[in-house]
Write a structure and sequence with these properties.
The structure holds two protein chains of two kinds. By secondary structure, chain A is mainly α. In chain A, about 70% of the residues lie in helices and about 0% in strands. In chain A, helix 3 packs across helix 14. Chain B folds into four domains: about 140 residues, no CATH class; about 120 residues, no CATH class; about 160 residues, no CATH class; about 25 residues. Chain B is elongated, with a radius of gyration of 31 Å. The chains are: A mainly alpha, B alpha+beta.
C-alpha cells in the first residue's frame, strides 16, 4: 500500500505538466544520441516515437487503473511474485534516480560551458542538492505546484523562441531523406522512445490523483502536443546543422546560440533560452528524484518519504562528482539508454501477466 | 443531593482559601486562577476580597453607600478613567439613593433584591449579574462598574465603559483616492460598529474571547454564518484558544501567534485598517479577527495575490484596476529579481548581453573602485536607512530627509566615483517599484527577499539568480494560510478566480466568490442561498425542538 499524505494529492493538470516537463527536458538532450548514427534523418525516429507513444499511454493508464491506491513499485511484486517483483521495483526506482543524475550531469556541463567556467563543480552540486532537497522535502504537492506555476510560462516562452527560429530556417536542408535506407532509421527508434520516460509518472503517481477518472484525454493531448514541439526543435536543429550536429555538445542550445534577433536587448536569445531550460531541467531533476524516493520508500516500507529524500542525496553528490567525458554522459552514467525503453515496457508486460492471471482464475 | 451540595460548597471554600493565600504571597499569575471562586453574601467580605486582590492602586474607586430601597447597604466599584462618571452618578447612584417612587410595589412582588436593582431601579442597558469572581474582576478591569449589594451573592456588572480614544480617521498606510476615508481605531466596539454599518446581514457574527493571561485583551472573531467555511472558522478559533502568553498588545502579535509558518518572511494573514476592505473580505467568505487596542483587523486566509490588491482597484473602472494591479505584480517581481539580474549581467555573465550594451555599462563603471555587489548593497542599505529615518522622524522632517538624502547622496556618490550611475538608476527604480506594493508587511517581505537573490547572483551569476528565484518559488508554493495554498489561484489553478486576481474583471462578471476559500455559497448575486440557509436553520431548530419535546 502506498502511503499517501493528505497534502500530497495532485490534480490531473499537475500530473500532465509533470509529464510534459520530462518530455521537454529529454527532448533537449536526446538528440545527440540519435544523431550519432543517422545524422540528418534524426527527426524521423522522433516522428515514429510520437506514433508509438499512445501504446505506452494506454498501457500505463490501464495498469494504474487496476490498482488505484498503489503505485507500480507496490503492486509489481503482487503481480509477478516477490522474487521477480522486487528486482523490477528496484530497477524502476533506480532508473528514475539515474535519470535525475543524468539530467543533472548535463545541467552541470551546461553551467560550466555557458555560465560558470571557473567555478568548482562541487559548489554547483551542493547548491543543486540543497535546493532539490528543499523541493522534495514538502512532498509531491509542492513539486506539482512548482511545475504548475513555472512550466506553462516557460513552455510558452520556449515555443515563442522556437517560432523565431522557425521563421529563419532553411527547409531544403532536410534533403535527402533516408539517404542510407530505412533500416538505420528503424534501428534508432528505440533511442527516440526514451523521450517519453516521464510516462512513468502515471503508474507512480496515480494513487496521488484527486480525480482518477477520464485522465486519458488530457494525458494524450499533452504528451502528443509536447512531443510535436520537441519534434520541431529536433527538426530545426537538423535543418540548421545537418552533419555538423555530431560535433556539437549541446545541439539544441547551439541552435539558439547561432541565431540573433535584432531587437536591442534580446539580441542573444541563448540567454533567454538558458533562463528557460535551467528551471525546466531543475524541475525534471526534482520529479525524477522524487519518483526514485517514492520507489525506494515503497520498497522498504517506510512511512515518510523524507528518509529516502536525505539518504539518496549523498549518492547524488558522489555520483555527480565522478569525472566523466562529455560524450559518455548520454549513457546515463554507464546505464545504457535502452533500459529506459524496458522501463517503459514494464507496465505493458505487467498488464499482460495480470490479464492472463485473471483469465486463469 | 446534600452531600453533593456540601462537596461543591467545601471545594469552593477551599479554592477561595488557596486563592487568598496566593494573593497574599503574590503568586497569582493569571485570571484563570479565579475560576471556580464565587462571591459571598456578606458585602464586607467581597470588598475585602477586592482590596486584597487589587491592592492599593489609587485608580480603583470603592464607594459604599446605603440604598434607599430597604436601607440596604451596597457598594459600587470602578476604575477611574475607564468609566463615564456622569453615568455612574446619574443613572446608578441617583436612582438607588434618592428615588423612592415605586419602592412599595417591590415587596409584594417578592423579587430577589439584585433583580429589583437591575430591572427596576438602574435605568441603564448592558447590566449582567454574576457570582463568579472571574467575571466580576474582568468586568471591573475592562471598565465596567460593579455593584455589590449586601445579603446577596450576585454582583451586578454594569456597562459604563468610556475612555479617551482616537476618532475615526483615514488610515495613513492605506489611503485611497475614491474610496471612503475612514479607518479602524483602537476601540474594539467602534471597529465592530464600522463593520456592522456596512453589512446589515443577520448572519454576521462577532464572537468574543479574551487572550493574554495578564492583559486579558478582548478579541473578536468575525464571520458570516452560512457563508464562511465553518472549518476555517473553527481553525481560527482553535488557534486563538491555544495562545498561551501573558499579554497581547494588538492584532499584529496575534498574527504572529496563529500564522501557519512562523519562519517564513512572507505574511500569511492580511492586516488592514480599512473597514471597506474587511467588509469585502467577509463577504468573500473569510474570517476576521479584531482586537481591543489595535486599529489593524486580521483577515484570513490570505493569498499572495490578495496582498497586491487595494480598495482603489474596485473604485476605479476595471480597465485601470486591472492595469495597475498587473503593474504591481510585475513590480514585486522586479523588486526581488531586478538587482540580482543587474549584477549577474554586468559583473558575472556580461557575455549574455548585446555588445553595445556591455560597452555602455562598462564606460559608466570606469573609475568605480568597488565591485558591483558592494556598490549595490551600499546603495540599497543607504536607501533602507533613509526610509527608516523618514518613518521615525516627525512627518515634515522625515519627508525632507528622505528626498534630500536620496537626491544629494545619490548625486554625491556618483560625482565622488563611489558608485556608477547605472547602479543608482537600478536602486532607485527598485525602490520606486517597492512603493507600489500596497501591503506594508508584504512590501517588507518582498524587499528582504531581494538580498539573498542579489548575493546569490553576485556569487554564481545567472545560475545563482535562477536557483535563488526557484528557491523562493518552492517556498511560496509550499506556504499555506489556514490550509489555503498561498499561491491560489495560480497554483492550484482555478481559472475562474482570475476574474478578480491578476486582473480585475468587470463587476458584472465578478458574481462568483473565490473558489479557493471554499465558501458555502459561491454565487454572490442569488438570493436562493440566503433563503436556503434560513430555511435550513429553521428546519434544524424545528428538529431540535421536536427532539426536546417528550411527546414526540
Amino acid at each position: 500500500m502506498t502511503i499517501i499524505h493528505p497534502r500530497d494529492h495532485i490534480s490531473v493538470t499537475q500530473l500532465v505538466l509533470l509529464i510534459s516537463t520530462t518530455i521537454t527536458t529529454i527532448g533537449f538532450l536526446d538528440i545527440l544520441e540519435i544523431a550519432k548514427d543517422i545524422a540528418i534523418d534524426t527527426w524521423i525516429p522522433v516522428l515514429f516515437a510520437i506514433i508509438i507513444v499512445p501504446f505506452f499511454i494506454v498501457t500505463h493508464i490501464k495498469l494504474a487503473e487496476q490498482f488505484p491506491d498503489e503505485n507500480i513499485i507496490a503492486y509489481t511484486p503482487k503481480i509477478v511474485g516477490k522474487w521477480l517483483g522486487y528486482p523490477i521495483a528496484f530497477f524502476l526506482s533506480s532508473i528514475y534516480f539515474f535519470l535525475s543524475l543524468f539530467i543533472f550531469q548535463i545541467f552541470l556541463e551546461i553551467i560550466k560551458v555557458f555560465l560558470l567556467p571557473k567555478t568548482p563543480k562541487e559548489i554547483v552540486i551542493i547548491i543543486q542538492a540543497v535546493v532539490l532537497l528543499y523541493a522534495v522535502w514538502f512532498g509531491l504537492n509542492g513539486i506539482a505546484r512548482l511545475a504548475e506555476l513555472m512550466i506553462p510560462i516557460l513552455t510558452l516562452l520556449f515555443t515563442l523562441l522556437l517560432f523565431l527560429i522557425f521563421l529563419k530556417a532553411d527547409y531544403t536542408n532536410i534533403l535527402p531523406i533516408a539517404n542510407n535506407g530505412l533500416l538505420p532509421i528503424v534501428k534508432n527508434i528505440y533511442k527516440a522512445v526514451p523521450l517519453y520516460a516521464g510516462l512513468g509518472c502515471i503508474t507512480m503517481l496515480y494513487p496521488f490523483l484527486n480525480r482518477k477518472k477520464k485522465i486519458g484525454k488530457p494525458i494524450f493531448f499533452t504528451v502528443i502536443g509536447t512531443g510535436i514541439i520537441i519534434f520541431f526543435l529536433i527538426l530545426l536543429t537538423m535543418l540548421t546543422f545537418r552533419y555538423e550536429v555530431t560535433d556539437l555538445y549541446f545541439p539544441s542550445i547551439s541552435l539558439f546560440q547561432r541565431f540573433t534577433v535584432s531587437i536591442s536587448f534580446i539580441e542573444r536569445i541563448v540567454f533567454f533560452l538558458l533562463m528557460i531550460v535551467i528551471p525546466i531541467f531543475f524541475i525534471f531533476s526534482v520529479i525524477t528524484y522524487f519518483l526514485s524516493v517514492i520507489g525506494f520508500t515503497t520498497i522498504f516500507k517506510f512511512r515518510e518519504h523524507t528518509v529516502f529524500s536525505i539518504l539518496l542525496i549523498p549518492a547524488f553528490f558522489l555520483i555527480s562528482n565522478i569525472p566523466i567525458s562529455i560524450a559518455d554522459i548520454f549513457w546515463l552514467k554507464g546505464v545504457p539508454i535502452w533500459t529506459i525503453d524496458i522501463a517503459l515496457l514494464v507496465p505493458a508486460v505487467l498488464l499482460i501477466i495480470l490479464k492472463l492471471k485473471e483469465r486463469k482464475k | 443531593m446534600f452531600r453533593s451540595l456540601f462537596k461543591k460548597w467545601s471545594s469552593g471554600t477551599r479554592k477561595r482559601e488557596l486563592f487568598q493565600k496566593k494573593v497574599m504571597e503574590r503568586e497569582l499569575n493569571a485570571m484563570d486562577e479565579l475560576d471556580g471562586i464565587f462571591t459571598e453574601k456578606q458585602l464586607q467580605q467581597n470588598i475585602q476580597f477586592v482590596r486584597e486582590l487589587l491592592g492599593t492602586s489609587n485608580d480603583i474607586v470603592i464607594h459604599p453607600f446605603i440604598s434607599a430601597y430597604k436601607n440596604t447597604p451596597a457598594t459600587i466599584m470602578y476604575i477611574d478613567g475607564l468609566i463615564e462618571r456622569t453615568l455612574v452618578n446619574e443613572q446608578i447612584l441617583r436612582p438607588l439613593m434618592n428615588d423612592f417612587r415605586t419602592f412599595t410595589d417591590f415587596e409584594e412582588k417578592k423579587e430577589e433584591i439584585e433583580e429589583v436593582f437591575q430591572y427596576q431601579l438602574i435605568s441603564m442597558t448592558g447590566i449582567e449579574n454574576s457570582n463568579k469572581w472571574k467575571d466580576v474582576i474582568l468586568g471591573l478591569l475592562s471598565g465596567n462598574t460593579i455593584l455589590f449589594i449586601n445579603e446577596t451573592d450576585q454582583a451586578l456588572i454594569i456597562s459604563t465603559k468610556a475612555w479617551e480614544a482616537r476618532g475615526i480617521e483615514e488610515p495613513i498606510s492605506e489611503s485611497t483616492v475614491r474610496g471612503p476615508h475612514e479607518g479602524f481605531t483602537e476601540t474594539l466596539r467602534t471597529n465592530t460598529a464600522l463593520i456592522r454599518r456596512k453589512i446589515r446581514d443577520p448572519f454576521l457574527r462577532f464572537e468574543q474571547m479574551y487572550i493574554g493571561l495578564r492583559s486579558q485583551t478582548e478579541v473578536v472573531v468575525g464571520y458570516i454564518e452560512g457563508l464562511t467555511n465553518s472549518e476555517i472558522v473553527q481553525e481560527v478559533k482553535q488557534r486563538l484558544q491555544q495562545i498561551e502568553i501573558d499579554r497581547i498588545n494588538g492584532t499584529t502579535e496575534i498574527e504572529q501567534l496563529i500564522e501557519d509558518n512562523t519562519y517564513s518572511i512572507f505574511p500569511q494573514i492580511i492586516g488592514t485598517e480599512r473597514p471597506d476592505m474587511v467588509t469585502t473580505e467577509l463577504l468573500d467568505g473569510k474570517v476576521v479577527v479584531l482586537s481591543d487596542n489595535s486599529p489593524y483587523v486580521l483577515v484570513m486566509p490570505a493569498t499572495y495575490s490578495r496582498f497586491q490588491m487595494t480598495s482603489d482597484d474596485y473604485y476605479e473602472r476595471w480597465f485601470f484596476g486591472s492595469f495597475i494591479r498587473m503593474i504591481r505584480f510585475i513590480a514585486a517581481f522586479v523588486v526581488i529579481a531586478g538587482p540580482g539580474l543587474y549584477i549577474c549581467l554586468t559583473a558575472v555573465n556580461p557575455e549574455l548581453l548585446p555588445t553595445d550594451f556591455i560597452i555602455s555599462t562598462s564606460a559608466g563603471r570606469s573609475g568605480v573602485p568597488f565591485p558591483v555587489i558592494v556598490e549595490l548593497l551600499m546603495m540599497e542599505i543607504t536607501l533602507e536607512l533613509l526610509r527608516e529615518a523618514g518613518v521615525r522622524l516627525p512627518k515634515p522632517i522625515g519627508q525632507a530627509v528622505s528626498v534630500v538624502g536620496g537626491l544629494v547622496l545619490g548625486d554625491a556618490a556618483i560625482t565622488a566615483g563611489i558608485v556608477s550611475p547605472l547602479t543608482v538608476v537600478v536602486v532607485a527604480l527598485t525602490a520606486i517599484f517597492s512603493f507600489t506594493i500596497p501591503s506594508y508587511s508584504f512590501g517588507i517581505a518582498i524587499r528582504l527577499s531581494r538580498y539573498p537573490v542579489t548575493i546569490a547572483s553576485a556569487l554564481f551569476g545567472l545560475y545563482g539568480w535562477l536557483m535563488s528565484i526557484i528557491f523562493i518559488f518552492i517556498h511560496l508554493v509550499n506556504l499555506k494560510s489556514f490550509n489555503v495554498p498561498y499561491l491560489s489561484p495560480f497554483t492550484p489553478l482555478t481559472i475562474g478566480d482570475w476574474r478578480d486576481n491578476f486582473l480585475v474583471g468587470p463587476l458584472k462578471l465578478r458574481q462568483m466568490r473565490p473558489q479557493y476559500i471554499h465558501a458555502k455559497q459561491l454565487n454572490r448575486s442569488t438570493q436562493k442561498n440566503i433563503l436556503k440557509h434560513k430555511s435550513d436553520n429553521i428546519m434544524k431548530e424545528g428538529t431540535e425542538s421536536d427532539d426536546n419535546n417528550p411527546s414526540t
